[in-house]
Write a structure and sequence with these properties.
By secondary structure, the protein is α/β, with parallel strands linked by helices. Helix content is 32%, strand content 22%. A hairpin with a 5-residue loop joins strand 1 and strand 2.
Amino acid sequence: QIMKHYSVLHSNTDVVSNFLQYDSDGNIIGLSTRDEDMIHMYNKAEVISRKNNSTNNNKRKNVILLGDSLGDLDMAAGVTNPDTVLTIGFLNKNIETSLPTYQDSFDIVLVDDQTMDVPNTIISDILAKATSA
């Protein structure tokens, strides 16, 4: 929904995620998925690979990977021969002890930042450069 709100969800964009399920009053009542399985830290690369093989996405070569755990870095393994993988880590707990490891592992580390401002700015800049070229 947030990608629709910011007009960055395009026909060539796929979101691999669990989605919130709401009741008629708008209260969150659980999770729903667009795939058969609940996506979790240990099967993300498999779900991405399965999704890529079932669509035309297997020709894509650029990835922006967002994660809040080191295990999320394996998600890019589901993309066949990527040219560019930009990893953005959200570090929200155990900041002092985890920061050095996150900095060594992710390209960008956002500390205690629950917004999508940085990813949205990156995507907006890419789109602006693509349309001006």
